[in-house]
Amino acid sequence: MALRDKSVRQLGGVGDKRAKAYEKLGIHTVEDLLRYYPRAYEDWSRTVRAAEAPAGEPCCIRGWALAAPTEHRVRQGMTLYRFRVSDGRDIITVTLFNNRFAAAKVHADDELLLFGTVIPSGRHYEMTSPLIEPASTGQRIRPLYRQTEGLTARMIENNVRQALALVNAATLPDPLPPTLLEKQQLCDLSTALHSIHFPTNELALEAARERLIFEELTVLQVGLMRLKGRSRGDNTVRIRRDHTAAFTAALPFTLTGAQNRAIADCLQDMAGDRPMSRLVQGDVGSGKTAVAAGVAYSVIREGWQAAMMAPTEILAEQHASTLSRLLGEEVRVGLLTGSLSVPKRRQIRQALEAGELDLVVGTHALLTDAVRFARLGLVITDEQHRFGVHQRACLAAKGNNPHMLVMSATPIPRTLALILYGDLDVSVLDELPPGRLPVETYAISSAKRERAYGYVRRHLDEGRQGFIVCPLVEEGEEPSDLNAATTLFEQLAAGPFAGYRLGLLHGRMKTAEKEETMAAFARGEIQLLIATTVIEVGVDVPNAVIMVVENAERFGLAQLHQLRGRVGRGKHRSTCILISDSTGEENRRRLTAMCSTNDGFKIADEDLKLRGPGDFFGDRQHGLPQLRIADLLGDMPLLNRAQMAAAHLLSVDPDLQAEENAPLRQAVEHLFDRVGEQGLN
Ligand code: ADP
Ligand code: MG
């Protein structure tokens, strides 16, 4: 039986309880378990003497028990076991807590391996609760696994051993065909799996890692390239005429060169043999919405419908009103979000299905089955990094191969863009609308808060608007945090901003309230908006020129950049004031970066340096499948190799029909199935 279909319950010792614990780690099948690679290793293969032990770090000591452990009852429920060990030169006193089981296995004169931290104590040494093995079991490198309740590293280790005994070419076919292994000089899957769990030495471990990373990246690349291939089936929504001139004529501004180029790229795509699949990437404020409008305009004029999906209701609402303004009166625009009343939603759905709406803007609510289109020709997703690859595909499936346009402000290094958006063509908006002044950014301590407020009041008096942002109101946080925005709002209304028109916006408010508040802010009725990060994404009010961020240390760098993007969107000079009393090194670097540049790419680089790649990708914001072993930044050279290998494989066998490619095809399907699950979570 294929190990991909064999449940872990069929391994020894795995009952209901352990199977549940495995499930928590995402392990259902024997293959899942084999692919659950150790997060680290205990190196029992190299032993040191106590005197050479690294300070504060675990190591392995080889020695002889001088006597059997003695028992010391310290108090009710606490028993210590002590014995002394000689490493041939020094004496180490070993203490075990309540561990009668381990103590019973130690006898006088036994030769032992002890794994743990050695602490000097006078002329001797001490070890507390080390792992103990008889030296006869042999010195080796042992795996350490990320654990969960009810599942120890040792249980996992034992089950992995059993699983490995089941591996052969029939039960676990190698996704990498033999010819590829040979060309890349990599070991086969069975060898790699044995070595990744139980390496005999560091070289074997390195070889296993290289092979498994290469495999993972190749499967990923093949999958992404095939997605691209698939979306490029026949173009059933051919847009033969370019209506951009009519669109721009009615615009309240002139498009930038970059915007014009992006729209032209799209029209060229849509006139071609294959449906469009394009990413428009541009920093905050670069004008992506107008590009989307321009592209949608031609599609709609040719008689098709367009759908635009945004990550939050506030943003969807804002896009609906912006787009109906930019597209003019003849274009019928509808809004569909989860919080609309049931009859209202039904009405929108019926209009869509009857072809009585040209454009619908919405949130995830667009993805439900009940939403159908008469003639869906274009799917737009805004702030792409908030959605999974799968969700984009799900919306597209509501039409017959519609064109796809995705927009993202998340600046990521170029090479990575290629991988992450491997299934897309890319247009970059590398030019801001004219007259934009960089947002001046200052970091101050809370001692200067009153002065900052004075500065804000001056702007409000001149007719401008502003934001005061405080950290997120989040489930499970302290009640004091929960009320942060509300409390601040009350304080400001009673004190420094008495007499001004203030508004409050946070994630816990009802949608209708949120919408009303945003609309009032957009109309200028609210002068100063006290908000949490719900305004982070996309909100666009050009008259807002000043932002104060409270507790700036609580925000990530990318997030601060997104927040700051809410000001500096019009012709007035804008200011962002970051308040923080934290003196930590990392915080200082973050604030310095914010004050010294407005360039999203520079910020992203700095962010990457500060947070490390693990964290950058760990948040699953890119909609990619979670990788088990590869690190997209650290393994760049392997990634390039995998990319070339994938391209070669597909050029020879585009549909992976060859028998030797069948396991690869299955691995690709399996990987992207998992994205599906995650994407809908
Ligand atoms: P983002 O790329 O962050 O989504 P938006 O599409 O929200 O940016 O645009 C930011 C602001 O710039 C909006 O107020 C929009 O009306 C304005 N804008 C967009 N393009 C131009 C342009 N070519 N000239 C002047 N203003 C523009
Ligand atoms: Mg936007």
Write structural notes for this entry.
The protein is globular, with a radius of gyration of 30 Å. The protein is of the alpha/beta class and 681 residues long. It has a 7-stranded parallel β-sheet with strand order 13-14-12-15-16-11-17, sandwiched between helices. A 6-stranded parallel β-sheet has the order 18-23-22-19-21-20, sandwiched between helices. A 5-stranded mixed beta barrel has the order 3-5-6-8-7. Residues 474-482, 613-622 and 675-681 have low confidence and may be disordered. It has 23 helices and 23 strands. It binds adenosine-5'-diphosphate and magnesium ion (MG).
The portion of residues assigned to helices is 25-40%
**Shape assignment:** globular
Helix tally equals 23
Strand content: 15-25%
Give the N-to-C terminal Cα separation.
31 Å
Poorly predicted ranges: 474-482, 613-622, 675-681
Query: What class, by secondary structure content?
Result: alpha/beta
Give a list of the ligands.
adenosine-5'-diphosphate, magnesium ion
Task: Write down the overall mean pLDDT.
Answer: 87
Radius of gyration: 30 Å
In total, the number of strands is 23
**Biggest sheet, strands in spatial order?**
13-14-12-15-16-11-17
Biggest sheet character: 7 strands, parallel
